[in-house]
């Protein structure tokens, strides 16, 4: 399969750029904010909420950040703690990325980065936030269609069964062409009736005792796809939807040639 083209993030219209930033992983958002002042301002304008943000500085720089779950970023610290190269070959000092996480409250143990703080053997900075409830990004149908990934996983997706039906029909017409696996985890039994999200879509019901082997790009393990509903894209590529009502999960597997494993 040919390699996908690079995504021109900064060339998007402003509103589309902000929507894309909101659905990016926190790790990539923080990396994006360190590219330039413009990128940092864009991330600040997205109004990211977090449950915790911890920085540990020693022989390495470790950042633990929320909102949901914990993201762990580790940076190697050079002797003078420099980050990248600036204009005309000048080195740019590492600056604290804490300002890209907004709506923080509670006392901090360090109000700012002191001039000599990075000469210490070890330093810890804790920022405790009081918004400890789960925060789920509201991903719309348009935003889901923007994701140019081979594997897409969404938790508590705010889409109705009718919108999922529309997504499948748009995929049949060529949307999300690189996607191999779509995994959706619902809460509160919101996954809806398969008669709704498969309405108007010609499909074949596969017996539950029939298992097929599937392998997605970037994964070493082989998945056993049991049962489900088969349907096809306009170019003939087959996909299967499997619904697990017990765990409120909904999966879509796209059977590209490299994904088909001989049973």
From TrEMBL:
All residue ranges annotated as the F-box domain in the record: 6-56
One Pfam family hit: F-box
Domain of life of the source: Eukaryota
InterPro entries: F-box_dom, F-box_Sdz-33, Zygotic_Embryogenesis-Asso
Name this protein carries in UniProt: F-box domain-containing protein
């Amino acid at each position: 399969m040919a390699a996908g083209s690079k995504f021109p993030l900064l060339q998007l219209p402003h509103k589309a750029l902000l929507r894309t930033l909101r659905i990016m992983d926190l790790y990539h958002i923080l990396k994006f904010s360190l590219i330039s002042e413009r990128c940092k301002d864009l991330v600040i304008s997205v109004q990211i909420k977090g449950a915790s943000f911890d920085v540990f500085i020693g022989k390495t720089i470790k950042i633990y950040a929320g909102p949901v779950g914990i993201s762990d970023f580790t940076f190697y610290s050079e002797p003078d703690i420099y980050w990248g190269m600036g204009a005309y070959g000048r080195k740019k000092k590492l600056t604290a990325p804490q300002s890209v996480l907004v709506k923080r409250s509670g006392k901090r143990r360090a109000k700012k980065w002191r001039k000599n703080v990075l000469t210490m053997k070890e330093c810890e900075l804790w920022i405790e936030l009081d918004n400890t409830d789960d925060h789920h990004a509201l991903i719309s149908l348009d935003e889901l269609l923007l994701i140019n990934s081979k594997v897409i996983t969404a938790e508590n997706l705010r889409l109705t069964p009718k919108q999922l039906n529309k997504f499948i029909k748009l995929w049949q017409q060529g949307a999300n062409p690189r996607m191999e696996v779509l995994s959706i985890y619902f809460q509160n039994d919101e996954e809806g009736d398969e008669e709704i999200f498969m309405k108007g879509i010609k499909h074949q019901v596969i017996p539950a005792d029939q298992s097929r082997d599937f392998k997605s790009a970037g994964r070493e393990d082989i998945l056993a796809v049991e049962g489900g509903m088969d349907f096809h894209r306009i170019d003939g590529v087959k996909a299967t939807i499997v619904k697990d009502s017990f765990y409120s999960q909904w999966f879509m597997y796209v059977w590209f040639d490299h994904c088909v494993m001989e049973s």
